[in-house]
Amino acid sequence: MLFGVSLTAQTDIQVLGNTVLTAPDGSEGPAVTYLIRFQNPRADTVFHVVVRDTLDPRLDAATLTVLAASHPYHMVKEANQVVRWYFDDIRLLPKAQGAHGAGGFILFSVRLRPFVAAGQAILNHSCVTFNHQTTQCTNRAIIWVESAASILTPSTDEVGNGWLVVPSPNYGVFEVRPAAQRADAEENATAQWWVTDMAGRTVWQGVGPASAALPRPSPGMYHLWVRKSAQTWVRPFLVVK
Question: Which positions ≥6 away from 65 have C-beta within 8 Å?
Answer without folding.
Answer: 108, 109, 110
